Amino acid sequence: MGTAFPFSEALLLGLASGPACVASCGPVVVPSLLAEQAGLRLNTRYLGAFLATRFLGYLLFAGVAWELGALVTFRPAARSFVFASIHVLLAGVLLRYAYSVGRTCAHSCAGPQLVTIGTVKNRRISGAAVMGFLTGVSLCPPFVVAGVRAAEMASMAAALLFFAVFFLGTSAWFVPFAGLGWVKRNEAVTTVARMAMVLIAVYYGYVGLTMLTGSKGYGY
Amino acid sequence: MRMLTAKLGYTGAGLTVFAAVLAPFLLYGLFTKGFSSLGLHIDEMYTGGPTVRTVQAAGYAIVIHRPVSPHMLQREKSFVQLDWKPVSALPLHVSDLVDIDGDGKPDVHVSFDVPKDPKARLHVDVESLNPRYEAMRNVSKEKFSALIVRVNDVVLVRVPVAH
Amino acid sequence: MATKAQVLKAREPRSASRSLLLTLPIALWSLLMFSGWFKQPNRSQQIAGIITVVFMVILFFMMMRTWSTYRWRRWFFVALGVLFPVGFIHQVLVMRGTMGIPIEEMIAGRTPFCFIPIPLLILPAALYKTVVFPGSILPGGGMSGGGMAAMAGIWLAITIVVGKGWCSYACFFGGIEEGMASVPAKATLRKIDPRWRYGPWAVLLAMTLLSLALFEPAYCMWLCPFKAVSEYVAARNTVGMVQNGIFIVLFAGLVIALPLLTKKRTQCAFFCPFGAFQSIFNKTSVFEVKIDRARCTPCVLCQKSCPTLSLTEESIAKGETLMSCMRCGACVDACPKGAVVWHIRGTEVAVKPERARLMFLYAAWAMAIMFGGSIIADGLATILHVFV
Predict the structure, then answer these.
(1) In this structure, what DSSP letter does residue C145 have?
(2) pLDDT, tens digit, for every residue of C61-95?
(3) Contact yes or no for C134 and B152 at CB 8 A
């Protein structure tokens, strides 16, 4: 007789890790949400895109790591490499996003749209989706904690399900961000959001590059 | 209505001037006490965490702190802080086996010289006897999670905890 | 920035006797606040206390006599900005021997706390009851001074009284750039994109989020220009040198060069996250600056004189300043029609504005004497100690 799937454990772990997820994703989510147009519906769409691709990132990474048998034995050096690379990519995406905000259709289009990034007209993707995916594979500490527990599951399907339930628990903490849709958007809010994205991108780029080059993070 | 808002405004202004007078005698002290009673603590990455045990040696004590884990994206490792606190004085050379987790078995062997000049840089060697703790060779003050420093008369050593 | 001719009102000075009478409460307050200084055994401290009292009382007297605020307040503020580093750096060198903060000082909780990281520490403190600053909550010896609770206490007390007037009456850094901005007769760079005004809010948002994510005072670690005149990272590697390099470049650019070129307080107007945070308290403050639209022409001299771009054509049309107004008084003094006035919320605009100005100045100057005055005296005592 197999042991029951630890649904409540995964959910509770997710709920407990939620604040850490929100704090670590906050620098990406908050300014980019503020840079989008106002409206509860649009901001909910943003969160939906962000969380959906974050979920995809979680499952993809968990599946690959399970196949490689690496969920528990993921070495610190390899983990740092992934974390650093993702942060360099996030820096690039944030900068591109900040640039793209100014090109979003705001007046005569059929309806409010999410900010998209990309150069080819028909192949542009919403910035929220890209950032969601990158944060999903960034190996943040809550992800690592869940990975250790998921590695004890009997099968890959069970491990993925554990991650999925864990993800649900963490995502509950993102729901209140939809409330940013009620914040009136004007030049001030959009400009502040774009400037903040640039500052955060510079910092993320620095963090990633110093980790990749093995330099010390601090000067004291 | 205008009279009422004007009266309220002047009352507010008067109270503000009164608050300015009260500031150094009452408000400042009140707010300071208020902030200090919020139950806040300085991040353990700086303070080294609370003390869990003290081990007596000849002429000094070794104070063992609870291991500190980094927070979320802090780029430090977990560490445990050990303090060499002189009762009379620290010897010129310290070489101690330390049981960190209190299981009766030594976990690390720590050795360092104690220069007479209190401003001289310190270096520490830590031999790991328990795989939970990382070894250190000639480490000075590399980062918050791996260092040896002197604070007043006490020598602090931070040993990284392996993942 | 308004020229002298524009600043001087075409108005008879207030009578000397009446000005003295209005100054009397401030004189008594100063004597009370500095009574301890007069009793010091150290002669340099006694003299410094006397000079500071005389200085602050004379400035207030001139504010009363000339009906103007800005240029007299500026003397105080520049003195504060220049003398704070003198006293602070001297103290650091005596206690530590170096302006660099070594890691052991951080571990010992002896890093002095300044008010700028206050908004960055709120979220980690609220969510995790943790203060992400290497200081001491209570006095911890060394350079920790009165402790973080004391600085937070004084911040709250002064903010309740003057709101964002902190940036004109209490900030011990802003006087440096205000001094720089007043040096040239005319601005070299006159066209400034008004969107730069949003900079402080962007820095506040970014640093708040990063401080919570990274659990460190991100602004202090990377972006504070005033590290160049107080204390900085004791750099032991390339990264440390980069950190210090950033501080020096920001100081040279935002605090020295740009104010000289633009005659604006560029660090305050375009960068300081604490200033953005203090702007919130302008909404709770009872004192404000308003524009009487009946008298306004509009000549926009007030807009040109504002050191922080806190007046726009839209705000002038509405009869108000922006949230970023520092209550410095430059616009009030610059207005040739008396349309820009000090105001108490709830009262009618431009009805007895001098009463509003007096009430504000009594409150603000009392705070200035209590806080800034002691810093000025400390800096003076440091200099006098060489000679006395």
Answers:
(1) T
(2) 999 999 999 999 999 999 999 999 999 999 999 98
(3) no
Close Cβ partners of C317 (under 8 Å, ≥ 6 residues apart): C293, C298
DSSP code string of C220-242? HHHT-GGGGGS-EE---SHHHHH
Q: Order of strands across the sheet with B60-65? A: B51-56, B60-65, B79-86, B154-160, B146-151, B141-143
List, for residues C231-264, the tens digit of each pLDDT value: 887 777 788 888 889 999 999 999 999 999 999 9
| Residue whose tokens read 């060499």 | B84
Maximum Cα–Cα distance for chain C, whole Å? 63
Q: Number of CB pairs < 8 Å for B and C?
A: 161
Please name each of the domains of chain C with its CATH number. 10-97+353-388 (no CATH), 103-142+180-284 (no CATH), 286-351 (3.30.70.20)
The nearest alpha carbon in chain C to A24 belongs to C213
Identify all chain C residues contacting A17, using CB atoms and an 8 Å cutoff.
none
pLDDT digits (tens, 9 = 90+) for B60-94: 999 999 999 887 667 788 999 999 999 988 999 99
Using DSSP bridges, classify how beta strands B93-98 and B108-113 pair: parallel, antiparallel or unpaired: antiparallel
CA–CA gap between residue A51 and residue A172 (Å, rounded) = 10
Dist CA C283 CA C323 (whole Å): 8
Written as one letter, the residue type at A208 is G
Kind of pairing between the strands at C100-101 and C130-131: unpaired
CA dihedral B51, B56, B62, B68 (to 10 degrees): -30
Q: Tens of pLDDT along C322-347?
A: 999 999 999 999 999 999 999 999 99
Output the six-digit token pair for B48: 């080294």
